[in-house]
Amino acid sequence: MAYFSKMHTKQKRISSQQPERTLPKCPTGITGFDEITLGGLPRGRPSLICGGAGCGKTLFGIEFLARGAQDFGEPGVCISFEETSDDLAQNAISLGFDLKALERANKLVVDYIHIDKSEIAETGEYDLEGLFIRIGSAIDSIGAKRVLLDTPEALFGGLNDEGVLRSELRRLFRWLKDKGVTAVITGEKGEGTLTRHGIEEYVSDCVVLLDHRLQSGVVTRRMRVLKYRGSMHGTNEYPFLIGQKGISVLPVTSLGLNHKISDERISSGISGLDEMLEGRGFYRGSSILVSGTAGTGKTSMAAHLVDATCARGEACLYFSFEESPDQILRNMRSIGIDLARWIKKGLLHIHSTRPTTHGLELHLVDMHNLLESHKPKVVVVDPLSSLMSGAGENTSDLTNMVLRVIDRLKQLGTTGFFTSLTSGGHAAEATELNISSLVDTWLLLRDLESDGERNRVLYVLKSRGMAHSNQLREFLMTKNGVELREAYLGPAGVLTGSARLAQELRERDDESRVKRESEDRRLALGRKLRAAEAQILALEAEKEAAELELKTAEIENARRRDSALAQRAEMAQSRKVNSSLTVSRPKTREAGA
Amino acid sequence: MAAKRESSGIPEYDLRLYVAGQTPRSVQAFANLTKICEEHLAGRYHIQVIDLLEHPQLAKGDQILAIPTLVRTLPEPIRKIIGDLSNKERVLVGLDMRATV
Fold first, then answer.
1. Which residues of A touch B (CB under 8 A)?
2. Is residue A72 scored above 70 in pLDDT?
3. Pairing with A456, which of A119, A139, A311, A583 sits 20 to 30 Å away (CA)?
4. Are B94 and A123 an interchain contact pair (Cβ–Cβ within 8 Å)?
5. Mutate which of A110, A122, A129, A156 to test chain B, going by most B C-beta atoms within 10 A?
6. Which residue has the higher pLDDT, B100 or A256?
7. Does the distance separating the beta carbons of A137 and B57 come in below 8 Å?
């Protein structure tokens, strides 16, 4: 309800800001409708809502009245030609509108106009002044600003004179316009015409077509503004939902791309993955897609994120389309993640449904309602791709729906985590949903098959707004959760699993061998050095010996010469040669020579 | 406005004519009605004319849409005739009075 009231204040502001030159508009309060009509229905004019049986015409009208009375202070009158006021009140309760309470508060008058052909005879001329008086008195009794006529075509079944009826209806619509009330007139779709009796001729200001289409066994409701005189409006066909809170139209194309974004980062719960994302994890409020083939660990990644989110004390909503809550709890326990405690604490809500239980539309309603009631910070949809079976062949519907979910999450600033199963044959980079361009972060899980085993690898295909790692990492499921290992990238390509282990072993072997070898080499060199040093010592010893020898020889020489001289002197003495030794010595030598 | 009543064991016709103001069609209808009643139900009928402009809330009770509408509340079941009652035959059929003629 908080969301709605926010919407309303916004709409109020918009409508009050509407400058006079444009058509004044009357906000319906129907989620999304006021956006595609840029403000609501034309104020003070009748609008026609037409469509086949069960398409939600009456509901549209009731919501228009009830919201007007509740939220915009505009009392309303409901003139019902088909259902009694008790029936209407009953039906409206299921959508959260208490018509009886509004009646008691004088904000609403419900008048059931019953016309039974069997008790009426016609004779002569008449007009429908009685109807005018009834509507008029109802309007005046509470000062109504809004009127619903559901559906005046029933008059054609009760009265014979079609000419009178037509002119009276035309007069009625003009009269309502003169009264200045904003009127919604419903009409049942006819053959080749918008309404069975062609009353669209008389209501020419605004025509909205509701549709109810069965495609591959699944019903989708759609709405189109066929005509809106004097105003711009969204021209597309918009899917809409009827949920516990009334109608919501989700106009994909009119939603502005102006979500508030956050710079805050949240952990993925897997430290290795956080590392790959600048070490800080995902952006809060971003949408994350994990795609991969069967059994690659998508759910486990989701569980990690949930665990991390709840551990911060934030609420988490988990949509499971394949496993029951208990199954998820058991399976995640096997990898060491205890989600049950978060459920007990009320932080985690797991919503498990079969994708085929109902159409996409209702799944979307479910999601919206749960988003409303739980106000989670993180939403997990696991897996998105299984909704395919609900969408049948019409994948564009699913893409559309996913876009709506993502849009809503972004509006709420909620982080969305989607898993998508890629079947083996497809290219890994092509999700079957074609939603990859819508998401902010895309993680790809892959199986690598080699050496008789399959191993999981993960890489970040894209991540907007951050310098993410380009690495391929091996994804391991351990008893303590998911671990990311650096995958071995070698000349032979990517190695994972036992091949990686073998390679690592081989590398370790190599390393020790090299170490051993270098040690050997060092020792050998040491030895060589030491040998050389020994040689040096030996040579030096030799040198010393030689020097000694040389010295001895010289001394010997000198001694020998001295003794020779002494002998010569002795000899001369003996010959009695009287000459001085010093003068005669050279002569002697010459003579001797 | 006008009332004539007589009771002698014969079923009493209780008629209400709904009009919206003194339009020529309403005046015409009232005139036609009194004429038919005088001719066929003299002394056994009661006519009440209700002007919805004065009592708009009364339109709801008898499910009045068309103006003028003649409602036969008695004898049961309720019958309604809309129009200015210009076709006497059809008024008689509508009021289920042929049998008593």
1. 111, 113-115, 119-131, 133-134, 136-137, 155, 158-159
2. yes
3. A311
4. yes
5. A129
6. A256
7. yes
The CATH architecture of the domain made up of B13-94 is 3-Layer(aba) Sandwich (3.40)
Question: Rounded to an integer, what distance in angstroms lies between the CA atom of residue A280 and that of residue A148?
Answer: 55
Task: Identify each DSSP E strand in A244-377 by its residue range.
Answer: 246-249, 265-266, 282-283, 287-292, 316-320, 348-352
**How would you class A542 by CB atoms within 10 Å of its CB: exposed for 0-12, middle for 13-18, buried for 19 or more?**
exposed
Give chain A positions within 8 Å (CB) of B32: 124
d(CA A184, CA A203): 10
The CA distance from A138 to the nearest CA of chain B, in Å, is 8
As given in the structure block, the two tokens for residue A401 are 């729906």
Domain-wise residue ranges, chain B:
13-94
Alpha-carbon Rg for chain B in angstroms: 13
Q: Measured between alpha carbons, how far apart are the two ends of chain B, in Å?
A: 26
Tell me the three-class secondary structure of A378-444, residue by residue. EEEEECHHHHHHHHCCCHHHHHHHHHHHHHHHHHHCCEEEEEEECCCCCCCCCCCCCCCCCCCEEEE
Q: With H, G, I as helix, E, B as strand and everything else as coil, classify residue A492.
A: coil
The H-or-E segment that residue A555 falls in is helix A497-575
Confidence band of A18 (pLDDT split at 50, 70, 90): very low
CA dist., res. A202 & res. A205, Å (int)? 9
User: Using CB atoms and an 8 Å cut-off, which of residues 11-40 of chain B contact chain A?
Assistant: 18, 20, 25, 29, 32
For residues A221 and A44, give the distance between their C-alpha atoms in angstroms, rounded to a whole number. Answer: 28
Q: Where are the alpha helices (DSSP H) in chain B?
A: 24-40, 58-61, 88-94
Instruction: List C-alpha distances in Å: A177 to A139, A173, A202, A259, A475.
Output: 13, 6, 12, 39, 68
DSSP A279: T
Query: What pLDDT, in 10s, does the model give residues A330-381?
Result: 988 888 889 899 999 888 999 988 877 776 767 777 787 788 788 899 999 9
Both tokens of A65, joined, read 């009245």
Q: What whole-number distance in Å separates Cα of residue A1 and Cα of residue A113?
A: 33
Residue type (1 letter), B72: R
pLDDT band at residue A234 using 50, 70 and 90 as cut-offs: confident
Residue A579's pLDDT is 55
Judge contact between A400 and A241, C-beta under 8 A: no
Q: Look-up: residue for tokens 């994890």?
A: A281
Using CA of residue A577, residue A583, residue A584, residue A585, what is the dihedral sign? positive
d(C-alpha A458, C-alpha A292), whole Å: 9
Specify whether the CB–CB gap between A287 and A440 falls below 8 A: yes
8 Å CB contact between A26 and A14? no
- Strands of A287-292's sheet, edge to edge? A348-352, A316-320, A378-382, A415-421, A287-292, A441-450, A453-463, A473-478, A481-486
- Full 3-state SS string of A160-222: CCHHHHHHHHHHHHHHHHHHCCEEEEEEECCCCCCCCCCHHHCCCCEEEEEEEEEECCEEEEE
Closest CB to A130: pick one of B57, B69, B93.
B69
B64: chain A residues, CB-CB within 8 Å: 130, 134
Q: Which of B53, B77, B83 sits opposite A124 (nearest CB)?
A: B83
Which is higher by pLDDT, A488 or A145?
Answer: A145
**Six token digits for residue B29:** 């209808």
C-alpha A326/C-alpha A345 separation (Å) is 16
Closest CA to B26 of B43, B40, B47: B47
Distance CA B20, CA B44 (A): 26
Cα separations in angstroms, A337 against A147, A266, A270, A291, A395: 57, 18, 12, 21, 34
